[in-house]
Amino acid sequence: MTISTLGTIAILILFLMTLVTTVLAILGAARHSERLTEGAVQGIHGTFAVAAFASMLLEYAFLAGDYTIQYVQQNGHPEMPVFYKLTAFWGSLDGSLLFWVLLLSLFSSLAIRANRQRHRVLIPHAVAVLAIVIGFFTALILFLKNPFSPYLLPTAPMQGKGMNPLLQNPYMIFHPPSLYLGMVSLAVPFAFGMAAMITGQVDSAWQASVRRWVLFSWLFLSIGLVLGGLWAYEELGWGGYWAWDPVENAGLLPWLMCTAFLHSVMVQERRGMLKVWNLVLVVMSFFMTIYGTFLTRSGVVQSVHAFGESPELAWSFGGLMIATLVVSGGLLIWRWPLLRARNELESVMSREFAFLLNNWLFFGSSVFIALVVIFPTLTDMEGFRSFYNAALLPVVQLFSAEAPPLTGRITIGPSFYNHYMSPVGLALLFLTGVGPLVAWRKTTGSSLVKQFLGPLVAGLTAMLSAAVIVPLVRSGASGLEFMSVGGLLCFGLCGFTFWTIAQEYIRGVRVRRKHRPQSVLEALIGLMVKARRRYGGYVVHLGIVLMFFGFAGNSYKLERKLVMHPGETVELGDYRIRHDGILATQDWQKDMLTVQLTVLDDDGNELSDLRPAKWWYYQLKDQPTTEASRYMALEGDVYSSIADVQLSTGWTRVNLYYNPLVNWVWLGFAVMLAGGIICIGTRKGDAEGVS
Amino acid sequence: MALGTGTKIGLTLVVAGAIGVMVALDPGEGVLEYVYVEKVTADPGRFADRTIKVHGTVVEGSVKQRKGTTGDYRFVVEHEGERLAVHYTDIPPDTFQEGGEVILTGRLNAAGDTFESEDMSAKCPSKYENETKVAGGAAQVPAKT
Fold this sequence. Notes:
heterodimer; A: alpha+beta; six-stranded antiparallel β-sheet; four-stranded antiparallel β-sheet; 61% helix; globular; B: alpha+beta; five-stranded mixed barrel; 2 helices; 8 strands; 19% helix; 34% strand; elongated; disordered C terminus
């Protein structure tokens, strides 16, 4: 039997198992039968075993070079390093769906095992939901995108095409699976949320079980998003890391929903409020993963990394999205009386109101981005254009009289997203700082003054420093000239929020030292151990502040695109860049032209070499790849890439960028990750979360 | 004690006001009309003095680059049998090639016969694509942001 046949049989068995598991789970729940439920639980474990077997078969096909399988032939190559052969498994659409099923069945199995005794009533319902979702993806593989499909030719190809060189990059290898881990694991909270609504057990108990799952998803979505940014920064050569590409947005949408949930769940735990809202967020987090998958795999939007057009997948994912909204919406309405809040919002000067605002912004941003991503596709439809021009345009024109009617398809670029999302980002940074300063229920005026004074002074100091040192404010002919108001605000808010976090640690350390004799470091470690969720959360916030500090650097970014010749020196801000020649080399994979640049300081001292290059892979001769090179420093990167180069004359068309503070983004991410890991280790009974 | 009606109305007004200000301050730079080559050649006057995005395929053998001080490109794009000359002054993405699909951002020149562009997306060679099924430039790599 060939691997192709064996793999297809495994997928068929997997699909049948999900059907049987679903039926057993539904019957087990309806008849309150332990035996049937146990059968369904074993079914979920079994789906993982079969998915793992099918995945190993595909891996084996890549390692063995079985090019009779179309998917292996299109993505594998005998000379590809073993590491890339293994990761080619999820490198393309069909395999990525199998990878999705593998992860989903693994998480389902783990979640059911962990909660089998704790939530006995919820289990059959959660198993049914998870089996339906696994069954959906397995059906896609079986009927539309089978990675085991063989070539139906009398002579199969002898060699594979291989993975695109542009993507043979460590960041690109770990970026998709990180996003998958984050997205797929959101099915678990969704399943438990649905189970809670079906059974009517909508108290906080189910949320305690799913909070760590959401945190897990959030962590991996964060890792995936940042790795994608790092890949773009180092590989594409345009000097940036985020371009609001629809596929980047696909990962961001559930991330925003998860972040909202991780905050709002604390309000329910503490004050018995936002029960409906938390259920909505759990459903919407899952919905956004399906929506993101729909965006990347259906071809309905134009994107850097889209998987190509597939109307069948578009309809399938569309159906799942509608079913998710209709069923969960119906359950929510049915259970509305049980979801009444124990308490009400008492004051806008309260922590719960700060959380509510934060949630509106996260939720609103996610929905806004989701709509903007799909909007250009809608404008291709005559009916939608008529609807927009008749119903929506008059509303838009109330605020912007010159807004034009839609006459054809439009595109929406990064500047649109930046215009709307930058203020939202700054507002969220402000709320990150405000949260710890206000009390639950109500904050008194005197307490407000006492709490805000230090952070306000820190914020103003940061703003003034940026204005003078960068300088973001200069005196010109017409008075003071502001280089970037947004940048100035961002620096100020970084200072403000940083101080609120520092204030919390200082207070905590003082209290601990008052009660027992210990050093500052011991007290600090004690805080982190005793109240991991709260102080781990502050570490996450500190990471966010550092990332925003890095974003603020964009306000004085420099960019030069020019032609250089060997021996020539050009200026880039405080640096000078010297062209020292071109080097032609080759290895077993490619021809390379490397430009030798040297970074000099103001006094002409050599600081570093830059080696931007163009590579021509033998495999893809007509598509050279751009290899960026950068001089990294905490104050900023000197970043270079080559647009074009002529070996005979030394003529070089070079892009030079000065990216101030960019490394703080990666540093902040590392801190945020550390905070997330501290939080995920939280045990029941730990002190309240960051607030 | 719940929030008063006045507070709720005030909050609603603040949110609506903030959205209104954002819309009013939107310079509109991020939103561009997206057309295929034949639409531009059919009615060049309609697109005069406007930045738009044009989608087409780079005609084989049409790419010429000046290796002087600028290194700008001249080539022809076509769609549905209609052709448009392009003068491209920025750096093309790695995926730019003759016979490949591109989406150009720019304006028609005064004569209406050449598209002046300094931003281009070209079809991505992504491993995620099944080349036989990609149509309509479903995937691109941005030349820059």
